[in-house]
Sequence to fold (357 residues):
Amino acid sequence: MLKVAALPSDSPKRPALHLLKFPTELPGFREMIGEGKVVCVTGASGFIASWLVKLLLQRGYTVHATVRSLDDPKKTQHLLDFDGAKERLSLFEASLLEEGSFDSAVKGCHCVFHTASPIMFPVSGQQAQLLDPAVKGTLNVLKSAAKVPSLKRVVLTSSISAVLYGVKPPEFGAVVDETWFSDPETCEQKELWYPLSKTLAENAAVEFAKNNGLELVVINPGFVIGPILQPTLNITSEGFIRLIETGKEIFPDGIYRLVDVRDVANAHILAFENPQANGRYLLVADIYHSSDIMENINQNYPSLDYSERYKDSKYVGTPPFFVSRTKAESLGVKFTTVEDSIKDTVESLKEKKFLSF
Fold:
Protein backbone atom coordinates (compact mmCIF):
# COMPACT_ATOMS: atom_id res chain seq x y z
CA MET A 1 0.00 0.00 0.00
CA LEU A 2 1.27 3.44 -0.88
CA LYS A 3 0.63 5.82 1.96
CA VAL A 4 1.61 9.47 1.86
CA ALA A 5 2.15 11.08 5.22
CA ALA A 6 1.81 14.53 6.64
CA LEU A 7 5.15 15.98 7.58
CA PRO A 8 5.99 15.24 11.24
CA SER A 9 7.96 17.61 13.43
CA ASP A 10 11.03 15.48 13.79
CA SER A 11 10.82 13.08 10.94
CA PRO A 12 -27.85 6.54 34.18
CA LYS A 13 -27.76 4.67 30.75
CA ARG A 14 -24.45 4.61 29.16
CA PRO A 15 -24.39 5.03 25.39
CA ALA A 16 -23.88 1.87 23.37
CA LEU A 17 -20.71 3.40 21.93
CA HIS A 18 -18.89 2.49 25.16
CA LEU A 19 -19.20 -1.15 24.14
CA LEU A 20 -16.82 -0.68 21.24
CA LYS A 21 -13.18 -1.56 21.62
CA PHE A 22 -11.69 1.78 20.68
CA PRO A 23 -10.52 4.04 23.55
CA THR A 24 -12.99 6.59 24.88
CA GLU A 25 -10.36 8.29 27.03
CA LEU A 26 -7.08 9.85 25.98
CA PRO A 27 -3.84 9.60 27.95
CA GLY A 28 -3.79 12.04 30.85
CA PHE A 29 -7.51 12.70 30.84
CA ARG A 30 -8.13 10.86 34.10
CA GLU A 31 -6.62 13.83 35.92
CA MET A 32 -9.35 16.27 36.95
CA ILE A 33 -7.38 19.32 35.86
CA GLY A 34 -10.52 21.27 34.98
CA GLU A 35 -12.09 21.05 38.42
CA GLY A 36 -13.61 24.39 39.39
CA LYS A 37 -13.38 25.83 35.87
CA VAL A 38 -16.39 26.61 33.70
CA VAL A 39 -16.23 26.48 29.90
CA CYS A 40 -18.74 26.86 27.08
CA VAL A 41 -18.99 24.68 23.96
CA THR A 42 -21.12 26.00 21.11
CA GLY A 43 -22.79 23.62 18.67
CA ALA A 44 -22.34 20.90 21.27
CA SER A 45 -24.30 18.22 19.44
CA GLY A 46 -21.84 18.14 16.54
CA PHE A 47 -19.21 15.53 15.70
CA ILE A 48 -16.18 17.36 17.10
CA ALA A 49 -18.10 19.19 19.82
CA SER A 50 -19.63 16.01 21.26
CA TRP A 51 -16.15 14.60 21.81
CA LEU A 52 -15.04 17.94 23.20
CA VAL A 53 -17.86 17.92 25.77
CA LYS A 54 -17.10 14.31 26.70
CA LEU A 55 -13.38 14.95 27.23
CA LEU A 56 -13.97 18.20 29.12
CA LEU A 57 -16.28 16.38 31.52
CA GLN A 58 -13.67 13.61 31.93
CA ARG A 59 -11.16 16.31 32.75
CA GLY A 60 -13.36 17.76 35.51
CA TYR A 61 -14.65 20.89 33.81
CA THR A 62 -18.13 22.28 34.29
CA VAL A 63 -19.53 22.62 30.77
CA HIS A 64 -22.12 25.00 29.37
CA ALA A 65 -23.18 23.45 26.06
CA THR A 66 -25.28 25.22 23.46
CA VAL A 67 -27.63 23.52 21.02
CA ARG A 68 -30.15 24.88 18.54
CA SER A 69 -33.10 23.21 20.28
CA LEU A 70 -33.44 21.80 23.77
CA ASP A 71 -36.51 19.88 22.61
CA ASP A 72 -34.63 17.63 20.18
CA PRO A 73 -33.32 14.50 21.96
CA LYS A 74 -31.11 13.72 18.94
CA LYS A 75 -29.18 16.87 19.82
CA THR A 76 -29.13 16.49 23.59
CA GLN A 77 -29.57 12.96 24.95
CA HIS A 78 -26.11 11.63 24.10
CA LEU A 79 -24.60 14.65 25.85
CA LEU A 80 -26.71 14.06 28.96
CA ASP A 81 -25.56 10.42 29.02
CA PHE A 82 -21.86 11.31 29.38
CA ASP A 83 -20.11 10.53 32.66
CA GLY A 84 -20.18 13.67 34.81
CA ALA A 85 -23.00 15.27 32.83
CA LYS A 86 -25.53 15.07 35.66
CA GLU A 87 -23.25 17.04 37.95
CA ARG A 88 -21.39 19.36 35.59
CA LEU A 89 -23.23 19.80 32.27
CA SER A 90 -25.80 22.50 31.56
CA LEU A 91 -27.53 22.83 28.19
CA PHE A 92 -28.48 26.17 26.65
CA GLU A 93 -30.53 26.96 23.58
CA ALA A 94 -28.83 29.47 21.29
CA SER A 95 -29.04 30.67 17.70
CA LEU A 96 -25.98 31.73 15.71
CA LEU A 97 -27.85 34.54 13.97
CA GLU A 98 -29.39 36.04 17.11
CA GLU A 99 -27.13 38.59 18.81
CA GLY A 100 -27.08 38.09 22.57
CA SER A 101 -28.29 34.52 22.19
CA PHE A 102 -25.09 33.18 23.78
CA ASP A 103 -24.98 35.62 26.73
CA SER A 104 -26.44 33.17 29.25
CA ALA A 105 -24.27 30.27 28.09
CA VAL A 106 -20.95 32.13 28.37
CA LYS A 107 -21.73 33.86 31.67
CA GLY A 108 -19.13 32.94 34.29
CA CYS A 109 -17.01 30.93 31.83
CA HIS A 110 -13.22 30.86 31.63
CA CYS A 111 -13.13 29.77 27.98
CA VAL A 112 -15.46 29.48 25.01
CA PHE A 113 -14.92 26.73 22.44
CA HIS A 114 -16.75 27.93 19.35
CA THR A 115 -17.34 24.92 17.13
CA ALA A 116 -20.78 25.77 15.74
CA SER A 117 -20.72 26.46 12.00
CA PRO A 118 -22.66 24.93 9.12
CA ILE A 119 -21.04 22.50 6.72
CA MET A 120 -22.98 21.28 3.70
CA PHE A 121 -22.47 20.13 0.12
CA PRO A 122 -23.83 21.16 -2.30
CA VAL A 123 -24.93 24.70 -1.43
CA SER A 124 -27.87 26.41 -3.13
CA GLY A 125 -27.99 29.65 -1.15
CA GLN A 126 -24.47 30.19 0.11
CA GLN A 127 -25.09 33.53 1.83
CA ALA A 128 -27.94 32.29 4.03
CA GLN A 129 -26.84 28.67 4.40
CA LEU A 130 -23.11 29.09 5.00
CA LEU A 131 -21.70 32.60 5.05
CA ASP A 132 -24.09 34.37 7.44
CA PRO A 133 -24.14 31.60 10.07
CA ALA A 134 -20.35 31.24 9.89
CA VAL A 135 -19.40 34.92 10.02
CA LYS A 136 -22.28 36.54 11.88
CA GLY A 137 -22.54 33.53 14.16
CA THR A 138 -18.87 33.72 15.08
CA LEU A 139 -19.12 37.44 15.78
CA ASN A 140 -22.25 36.95 17.89
CA VAL A 141 -20.44 34.38 20.04
CA LEU A 142 -17.41 36.65 20.40
CA LYS A 143 -19.59 39.63 21.31
CA SER A 144 -21.12 37.58 24.11
CA ALA A 145 -17.67 36.40 25.21
CA ALA A 146 -16.32 39.95 25.33
CA LYS A 147 -18.90 40.84 28.00
CA VAL A 148 -17.55 38.25 30.47
CA PRO A 149 -14.76 39.49 32.80
CA SER A 150 -13.79 35.94 33.83
CA LEU A 151 -13.31 34.75 30.26
CA LYS A 152 -9.64 34.17 29.47
CA ARG A 153 -9.64 32.68 25.99
CA VAL A 154 -11.70 31.72 22.95
CA VAL A 155 -10.77 28.62 20.95
CA LEU A 156 -12.23 28.69 17.44
CA THR A 157 -12.80 25.63 15.26
CA SER A 158 -11.74 26.64 11.77
CA SER A 159 -10.61 24.29 8.99
CA ILE A 160 -7.76 23.36 6.69
CA SER A 161 -10.08 24.91 4.10
CA ALA A 162 -9.12 28.31 5.50
CA VAL A 163 -5.48 27.46 4.72
CA LEU A 164 -5.18 25.78 1.32
CA TYR A 165 -6.93 28.09 -1.15
CA GLY A 166 -4.61 31.03 -1.66
CA VAL A 167 -4.14 33.12 -4.79
CA LYS A 168 -1.65 30.47 -5.94
CA PRO A 169 -2.04 26.80 -4.97
CA PRO A 170 0.81 25.18 -3.02
CA GLU A 171 3.69 24.22 -5.27
CA PHE A 172 4.62 20.59 -5.69
CA GLY A 173 6.48 19.38 -2.61
CA ALA A 174 5.65 22.46 -0.53
CA VAL A 175 5.16 22.22 3.22
CA VAL A 176 1.97 24.00 4.24
CA ASP A 177 2.00 25.45 7.74
CA GLU A 178 0.15 27.97 9.90
CA THR A 179 1.41 30.92 7.84
CA TRP A 180 -0.70 29.89 4.83
CA PHE A 181 -4.11 31.49 4.33
CA SER A 182 -6.97 31.01 1.90
CA ASP A 183 -7.88 34.05 -0.19
CA PRO A 184 -11.57 35.06 -0.02
CA GLU A 185 -11.61 36.41 -3.58
CA THR A 186 -10.11 33.20 -4.94
CA CYS A 187 -12.65 31.12 -3.02
CA GLU A 188 -15.51 33.23 -4.35
CA GLN A 189 -14.28 33.09 -7.94
CA LYS A 190 -14.03 29.30 -7.76
CA GLU A 191 -17.35 29.03 -5.86
CA LEU A 192 -15.64 27.31 -2.95
CA TRP A 193 -18.35 28.30 -0.51
CA TYR A 194 -17.37 26.23 2.50
CA PRO A 195 -13.69 27.33 2.38
CA LEU A 196 -14.94 30.89 1.92
CA SER A 197 -17.19 30.63 4.98
CA LYS A 198 -14.37 29.30 7.17
CA THR A 199 -11.90 31.87 5.84
CA LEU A 200 -14.22 34.83 6.40
CA ALA A 201 -15.23 33.58 9.86
CA GLU A 202 -11.62 33.10 10.93
CA ASN A 203 -10.61 36.52 9.60
CA ALA A 204 -13.55 38.18 11.37
CA ALA A 205 -12.72 36.41 14.63
CA VAL A 206 -9.06 37.47 14.52
CA GLU A 207 -10.02 41.09 13.87
CA PHE A 208 -12.67 41.17 16.61
CA ALA A 209 -10.39 39.52 19.17
CA LYS A 210 -7.60 41.99 18.42
CA ASN A 211 -9.92 44.98 18.81
CA ASN A 212 -11.64 43.73 21.95
CA GLY A 213 -8.81 42.29 24.03
CA LEU A 214 -9.76 38.63 23.67
CA GLU A 215 -7.19 35.84 23.48
CA LEU A 216 -8.02 33.78 20.40
CA VAL A 217 -6.56 30.41 19.42
CA VAL A 218 -7.63 28.81 16.13
CA ILE A 219 -7.75 25.08 15.35
CA ASN A 220 -7.58 24.13 11.64
CA PRO A 221 -8.31 20.41 11.24
CA GLY A 222 -8.24 18.46 8.02
CA PHE A 223 -10.85 15.85 7.05
CA VAL A 224 -12.06 14.59 10.42
CA ILE A 225 -12.81 10.90 10.91
CA GLY A 226 -13.15 8.66 13.94
CA PRO A 227 -15.91 7.22 16.11
CA ILE A 228 -19.13 9.20 16.36
CA LEU A 229 -20.92 9.91 19.63
CA GLN A 230 -23.99 11.70 18.26
CA PRO A 231 -26.91 9.60 16.93
CA THR A 232 -26.99 11.33 13.55
CA LEU A 233 -24.48 11.35 10.69
CA ASN A 234 -22.19 14.33 10.27
CA ILE A 235 -21.02 15.37 6.81
CA THR A 236 -17.54 13.80 6.93
CA SER A 237 -18.85 10.47 8.24
CA GLU A 238 -21.52 10.55 5.54
CA GLY A 239 -18.83 11.12 2.92
CA PHE A 240 -16.77 8.29 4.38
CA ILE A 241 -19.74 5.93 4.08
CA ARG A 242 -20.35 7.00 0.49
CA LEU A 243 -16.72 6.34 -0.36
CA ILE A 244 -16.90 2.86 1.17
CA GLU A 245 -20.22 1.85 -0.36
CA THR A 246 -20.00 3.41 -3.82
CA GLY A 247 -16.44 4.57 -4.36
CA LYS A 248 -17.71 8.12 -4.96
CA GLU A 249 -14.99 10.62 -4.13
CA ILE A 250 -15.49 13.71 -2.01
CA PHE A 251 -12.41 15.39 -3.44
CA PRO A 252 -11.65 15.26 -7.19
CA ASP A 253 -8.05 14.19 -6.63
CA GLY A 254 -9.07 11.46 -4.17
CA ILE A 255 -6.63 12.78 -1.57
CA TYR A 256 -7.74 13.03 2.06
CA ARG A 257 -5.89 15.02 4.71
CA LEU A 258 -7.05 12.97 7.66
CA VAL A 259 -7.18 13.56 11.40
CA ASP A 260 -8.95 11.76 14.24
CA VAL A 261 -11.86 13.52 15.94
CA ARG A 262 -10.47 12.64 19.38
CA ASP A 263 -7.20 14.38 18.55
CA VAL A 264 -9.10 17.44 17.32
CA ALA A 265 -11.11 17.63 20.55
CA ASN A 266 -7.95 17.13 22.59
CA ALA A 267 -6.19 19.92 20.69
CA HIS A 268 -8.99 22.33 21.57
CA ILE A 269 -8.54 21.58 25.26
CA LEU A 270 -4.75 21.88 25.07
CA ALA A 271 -5.20 25.24 23.31
CA PHE A 272 -7.01 26.50 26.41
CA GLU A 273 -4.90 24.83 29.07
CA ASN A 274 -1.52 25.86 27.66
CA PRO A 275 -0.92 29.55 28.44
CA GLN A 276 1.62 29.74 25.59
CA ALA A 277 -0.88 28.54 22.97
CA ASN A 278 -1.30 31.17 20.29
CA GLY A 279 -2.37 31.74 16.71
CA ARG A 280 -3.38 28.77 14.57
CA TYR A 281 -2.77 25.02 14.78
CA LEU A 282 -3.06 22.80 11.71
CA LEU A 283 -4.24 19.26 12.44
CA VAL A 284 -3.50 16.65 9.78
CA ALA A 285 -2.23 13.27 10.94
CA ASP A 286 -1.55 11.75 7.51
CA ILE A 287 -2.45 12.16 3.86
CA TYR A 288 -4.14 9.18 2.22
CA HIS A 289 -5.48 8.52 -1.24
CA SER A 290 -8.92 6.89 -1.33
CA SER A 291 -7.40 3.65 -2.63
CA ASP A 292 -5.19 3.54 0.49
CA ILE A 293 -8.26 4.00 2.69
CA MET A 294 -9.98 1.13 0.91
CA GLU A 295 -6.91 -1.08 1.12
CA ASN A 296 -6.78 -0.45 4.86
CA ILE A 297 -10.45 -1.41 5.18
CA ASN A 298 -9.85 -4.49 3.05
CA GLN A 299 -7.11 -5.64 5.42
CA ASN A 300 -9.51 -5.44 8.39
CA TYR A 301 -12.55 -6.78 6.52
CA PRO A 302 -11.17 -9.07 3.77
CA SER A 303 -14.57 -10.59 3.04
CA LEU A 304 -15.59 -7.30 1.42
CA ASP A 305 -12.89 -7.74 -1.24
CA TYR A 306 -12.56 -3.99 -1.66
CA SER A 307 -9.07 -4.33 -3.08
CA GLU A 308 -10.53 -5.66 -6.33
CA ARG A 309 -13.11 -2.91 -6.58
CA TYR A 310 -10.55 -0.15 -6.17
CA LYS A 311 -7.49 -1.69 -7.81
CA ASP A 312 -7.76 0.62 -10.83
CA SER A 313 -7.78 3.77 -8.70
CA LYS A 314 -4.37 3.21 -7.14
CA TYR A 315 -2.55 6.44 -6.47
CA VAL A 316 1.03 6.45 -7.67
CA GLY A 317 3.47 9.21 -7.02
CA THR A 318 4.14 11.81 -4.37
CA PRO A 319 1.41 13.94 -2.76
CA PRO A 320 1.28 17.43 -4.24
CA PHE A 321 2.24 18.99 -0.90
CA PHE A 322 2.63 18.20 2.77
CA VAL A 323 1.05 19.64 5.93
CA SER A 324 3.32 20.44 8.85
CA ARG A 325 2.59 18.88 12.25
CA THR A 326 5.33 20.80 14.06
CA LYS A 327 3.23 23.43 15.82
CA ALA A 328 0.44 21.00 16.76
CA GLU A 329 2.95 18.59 18.28
CA SER A 330 4.54 21.46 20.20
CA LEU A 331 1.13 22.00 21.80
CA GLY A 332 1.16 18.39 23.00
CA VAL A 333 -1.02 16.79 20.34
CA LYS A 334 -0.19 13.10 19.89
CA PHE A 335 -1.77 12.01 16.64
CA THR A 336 -3.74 8.78 16.41
CA THR A 337 -2.55 6.69 13.48
CA VAL A 338 -4.83 6.86 10.47
CA GLU A 339 -5.00 3.06 10.43
CA ASP A 340 -6.52 3.10 13.92
CA SER A 341 -8.81 6.01 13.03
CA ILE A 342 -10.17 4.24 9.96
CA LYS A 343 -10.85 1.03 11.89
CA ASP A 344 -12.53 2.91 14.75
CA THR A 345 -14.60 4.91 12.27
CA VAL A 346 -15.89 1.77 10.56
CA GLU A 347 -16.60 -0.01 13.86
CA SER A 348 -18.49 3.02 15.16
CA LEU A 349 -20.57 3.35 11.99
CA LYS A 350 -21.37 -0.36 12.15
CA GLU A 351 -22.36 -0.12 15.82
CA LYS A 352 -24.64 2.83 15.00
CA LYS A 353 -26.05 0.77 12.09
CA PHE A 354 -24.99 3.30 9.45
CA LEU A 355 -22.91 0.51 7.89
CA SER A 356 -24.09 -3.08 7.67
CA PHE A 357 -21.52 -5.76 6.95
User: Anything to note?
Assistant: The first helix runs from residue 47 to 58. Residues 242 and 248 are 6 Å apart (CA to CA). The chain has one domain: 16-289+318-351.
